[in-house]
Amino acid sequence: MVSVLEPLAHQAMHRGGRILQQQIHLDLFDDPARWPRRPYCTDDLQHGLHHRALLSALTRPYIQANPPHLRVWSIHDVDRVGAALAWEEANLPPPTWAAQNRLNGHAHLVWGLRAPVLVDGLGARDAPMRYLCAVESMMRAKLDADTGFAGLITKNPAHPLWRVLRPAGGIQVYDLGDLAEWLPGLEKHLPRRGLTPAKAAGLSRNVTLFDRLRVWSYSQVRQYWGGGGFIGWNAWISSCNLTALSMNEDFGCPLGGTEVWHIAKSVGKWTWRNFNSTGFRKVQAARGRRGGLSSARARSAASEGTRASARELAALGWSHRLVASELGVNQSTVSRWLRVMHEAISDDPPLQAPAPQLAPLQP
Q1: Chain CA centroid to CA 297, Å
Q2: Which of 190, 218, 253 is the last residue of a domain?
Q3: Sequence-distant (≥ 6) Cβ neighbours of residue 226 within 8 angstroms
Q4: Domain boundary residue among 277, 296, 330?
Q5: Does residue 16 come out as left (phi exceeding 0), alpha (psi in the -120 to 50 range) or beta?
Q6: Do 142 and 62 fall within a single domain?
Q7: Shared-domain flag, residues 219 and 170
Q8: Using an 8 Å Cβ cutoff, are 94 and 182 in contact?
């Protein structure tokens, strides 16, 4: 099978000696499905990012690793000397690669996921995303990695500007369960519902924004039902995006605009499709029935408790007026309760003493 990257060998001689001649670790890019088709890339982060075809992006020191909507590579930014070996100190499995700055020793440590996780879009599933979020959160804590790192751009492992360390034996990838085995107490890092934006980092920002936006959308979508067709739909999606952008500002390190848009569109589409006027009336009716039954049971239980207290106080010799005042009910109500009680007692058959058992006469 011919690698998609073989043209690089021919391009190296026609780019004025550009660093392609020295590129290594190109096997990491053999599966183009694990990389964006047109990733963001740049020679200098200060000069902004540009979309380029993958072959062109590989000539740049910085590149986008994860395709839109997917988490294929779990990337952690460790800003200290010797960062490429931080995984050993943290008692974590070896990363797929570590790209280290030759000057200051800082590095990006990257773990490949055997099964990529969909992190936004209509097909995104809540449980895998929260599981991934917990794994990345605990790994980030153990590595003492930068909590503000967005993970969009990483040091290109095929570029000679970086010193790249890899385990022997080919490309090492992991299932989430494999990584979880190295993370005792992982459940403490599962993203909680209602996590405050100030405490959210990494992928938990996506989860937190998604949770906050979906709760907001349930009550707000009703305002757009009367818009009709595309007019109402476009107004609704625009409102979702504006609200998501506003919520995103609450994070210490906000998500990128593209990520926010994907989350807003995902929440907006699902809510628009599943929350319509007919469905809303059915839900409200079901809630009303459940609420009515619960309220009736609660009222019945409370009333029975009050009646029992009335009987006990009356047995102590309290007048109906005093019992009513003590329990906060009308005197006529107390009289009715006690009358019913007396009638129930009087309807019971009188108790009779058992006939004596005589011993048979002896002859």
Answers
A1: 36
A2: 190
A3: 232
A4: 277
A5: left
A6: yes
A7: no
A8: no
Say what the pLDDT of residue 83 is: 96
Q: What distance in Å separates the CA atoms of residue 311 and residue 313, rounded to the nearest whole number?
A: 6
C-alpha closest to that of 21 among 58, 51, 49, 50: 58
Cα angle for residues 315, 318, 321 (degrees, 5° grid): 130
Q: Please tell me the pTM assigned to this model.
A: 0.58
Tokens of 279: 């469905």
Among the listed residues 82, 38, 87, 81, the one whose alpha carbon sits nearest the alpha carbon of residue 63: 38
Percent pLDDT > 70 in the chain is 71
| Residue 349 DSSP label | P
Q: Assess whether 44 and 149 both reside in one domain.
A: yes
Asked whether residue 341 is assigned to any structural domain, the reply reads: no
Same domain as 164, residue 21: yes
Residue numbers of the domain that contains 219: 203-277
Residue 160 is which amino acid? P
For residue 222, give both structure tokens: 């009703």
pLDDT at 159: 94
Instruction: State the chain's mean pLDDT as an integer.
Output: 78
Buried/exposed 234-243: b ≥16 CB within 10 Å, e otherwise:
eebbebbbeb
